Amino acid sequence: MKKKTFDCIALLNEAAESTRLRLSDLTVHDQVVYWRGRNREVLAEQKRLMTETTGVHEFAFVVRLEALRKKRKTFDCVEMKHQAQERIRKELEGKSPEEQAAYLRKGRETLLKRQPSLQKKRLQAQG
Question: What residue segments make up the domains of the chain, in order of their start?
Fold first, then answer.
C-alpha cells in the first residue's frame, strides 16, 4: 500500500484548529473584526492575482468574481444587519440580563406597532 506524501485534509484540519485556538480567547466582536480583515486580505490577494495573471484560464474564477463585484448593489442587507447588530451590541454593553430583556421587548413592541404601516408602504411601492 502506498503511503501519502501529502494529506490536504490533514493540512486543512490543522489550519482550522490553529485558527480556532488563536481566536478562542477573543470576544465575539474581536472575532468579527478579525474575519472581516481576513476577508479584505483575501479580496486584495485575488485582485493582485488578477492583475499578474497572463493566462486567462489560470484564475478564471477570480475574473468571474471580480465581474460580479463590479455590479454595485444599491442596498446591502448583510452590511445593514452587521451595522444593526453592532449598534445593539453597544447599547446592551454593561446591562444586566433583565435590562437586556426589557430593551429587546421594547424593540419588539415598537416593531409590532410599526409593522402595519411598513407593510402598507411596501404594498404601495410594489404597485
Answer: 8-72, 74-127
